[in-house]
Design a protein that fits this description.
heterodimer; A: about 200 residues; mainly alpha; 8 helices; about 0% strand; B: about 350 residues; 5 strands
Chain lengths: ~200, ~350
């Protein structure tokens, strides 16, 4: 609901086209956002096939609910919110299925996450950019950040959402977003440090 | 500000979300503390690495799966012919149904259902009575038996619906009214019961109250086997006769112009044919005396000469303007000829 009290209308031309029933509009929506949604799901789930399933569910959910999309946020924000919820649910189900408790990250834990991908001095964080598989290393490190922290890190530092936007998407206070973001960054930095 | 306090604020400091005073304090501490400075550099580098990550490429099967799930027409894949014709169903099906009904009416419904003005003669006798007394004035070429209207009863006996019987009975009544009321001799004047043949008075009304040439075929089941009877077009609109066949110019003097259309129609009836539609005005001239009017009739092929002889009693048929070799695919059957008689006042 906008300032005037009127319901916000979707400004995205593809959404308008879809709501107008134009054939091909939804395919264009998928084409435009599929890489971003799939990437987010892959980084959240660390599993290509599960990420594919999740991304498919995201778009099917969007297909069913686009009529209710009021355009208060961008379509990409809306899709990533759906993706985040979908991935978090999957991670919770996976955890329950595997009989483990949902990971609660103690980023101050001396043991830290088990991931230690870097073993040589020339793979220090300030030189990782020079390494051929930088992206793969970071992806691997990300997978060891607990999901409740990871998705905030993804949305903030990769997708570029502000703390306020992330807070709105997550339904948590901005202060909590800041705290989790800092702890996630610090944990990731630790993981990317050389192993002594 | 201690190192722990600074390090707790480093992310906000790097994001620029600290208040000015707090940010200045962190900046001052980092400038003096190598440990906190290294921590700040490490965080900055980590954020930079995260931002440098490129998006992955979604596998092609993602779009395929979604298209399969939501349907190709909405997802944008080229819709199939079936979907093109019938989706969205709530729109297309009613439209197509209406189109089908309209097409059906055009093919089968309009000729029989077209309102025709009955001649203001006494009420038509029942079909049974008419069957026993065919109009003596109508000659049936080709030796057709007088029971040509018995086909109506035959059809009625053949399990036809009551509505169809009524329609056919009405058509027969119309025809018989016309025939019974027709004067036996070549009339120089229009029959009294027919509407006047002036342009003003005949608009929208048939000149001769005879059935259309494409009356329901079932009403005359023996028409093809019995040349000279009134014939009907095949039921399919595709086979409906073209009204462009042979053309005849009929020149009449002005003093006998009135009623010529009716006389042509009666001539057609006499030779076993029938008028085809209403007379139409052609030529585009405003003067009703000089403008062309055309009367279209369908004549059995065996009776064309008789028909020409009939209309020559009405006026002059210039030989040079009436080519006898016009052989256009005009009529509903090979043994039927469509004539367009142009009336020229001269």
């Amino acid at each position: 609901v906008g300032i005037t009290g009127s319901v916000a209308r979707p400004a995205d031309p593809l959404v308008k086209a879809f709501l107008a029933g134009e054939p091909g509009a939804f395919e264009e929506i998928v084409r435009e956002h599929q890489d971003r949604v799939f990437t987010f799901c892959a980084r959240m789930l660390s599993d290509r096939e599960e990420a594919l399933d999740a991304a498919q569910e995201v778009f099917l959910s969007a297909y069913r609910h686009l009529k209710g999309f009021r355009g208060e946020a961008s379509l990409s924000t809306w899709l990533l919110r759906i993706a985040a919820n979908n991935c978090l649910n999957r991670i919770r189900q996976r955890t329950v299925r595997e009989g483990r408790e949902v990971a609660v990250l103690d980023l101050d834990d001396a043991d830290g996450p088990p991931f230690q991908p870097i073993g040589r001095d020339d793979e220090r964080p300030d030189r990782i950019a020079e390494i051929r598989e930088t992206g793969r290393v970071i992806e691997s490190a990300l997978s060891h950040i607990p999901p409740e922290f990871r998705w905030i890190l993804l949305l903030s530092d990769i997708e570029g959402f502000s703390n306020e936007e992330v807070a709105a998407m997550a339904g948590i206070p901005v202060g909590t977003v800041k705290s989790r973001l800092h702890r996630s960054r610090a944990a990731l930095r630790k993981m990317l440090e050389p192993v002594a | 500000m201690t190192c722990d306090q600074v390090q707790q604020r480093l992310s906000d400091f790097l994001d620029g979300s600290l208040a000015d005073a707090e940010g200045a304090a962190v900046l001052s501490h980092v400038g003096q503390c190598p440990r906190c400075a290294a921590e700040a550099d490490g965080l900055r580098e980590t954020i930079a690495l995260l931002k440098s990550l490129l998006p992955l490429e979604a596998p092609p099967e993602l779009l395929e799966r979604i298209s399969d799930a939501v349907g190709p027409s909405r997802a944008g894949t080229k819709p199939s012919l079936w979907r093109t014709l019938f989706l969205p169903a709530h729109v297309k099906i009613p439209l197509e149904a209406a189109a089908a009904v309209l097409l059906f009416l055009l093919v089968y419904g309009l000729p029989a259902g077209t309102p025709r003005m009955k001649a203001p003669s006494p009420a038509a006798p029942p079909a049974a009575t008419l069957e026993a007394s065919p109009p003596a004035s109508v000659e049936i070429p080709g030796g057709a038996e007088p029971g040509w209207e018995t086909g109506i009863a035959d059809a009625a006996d053949g399990g036809e619906t009551e509505a169809a019987e009524t329609t056919r009975a009405d058509a027969a009544a119309d025809l018989l009214e016309a025939g019974a009321a027709a004067p036996p001799q070549p009339a120089s004047r229009a029959p009294a019961h027919l509407p006047p043949a002036t342009l003003a008075s005949t608009d929208g009304r048939p000149v001769a109250p005879a059935p259309r040439a494409w009356e329901p075929r079932g009403a005359f089941p023996q028409e093809e086997a019995a040349p000279g009877r009134l014939f009907a077009a095949p039921p399919s609109g595709l086979l409906r006769p073209s009204l462009h066949g042979r053309e005849v110019v009929l020149e009449v003097p002005p003093d006998v112009r009135e009623g010529v259309e009716e006389r042509i129609a009666l001539a057609a009836l006499r030779v076993g044919g029938s008028p085809a539609g209403e007379p139409s005005r052609e030529g585009g001239r405003d003067d009703p005396e000089t403008a062309f009017r055309t009367v279209r009739v369908l004549i059995p092929a065996a009776a064309t000469e008789a028909f020409l002889a009939e209309i020559r009693t009405i006026g002059i048929v210039p030989a040079d303007e009436s080519p006898d070799v016009t052989d256009l695919p005009a009529a509903p059957a090979a043994d039927i000829v469509a004539y367009t008689v142009r009336i020229r006042v001269r």
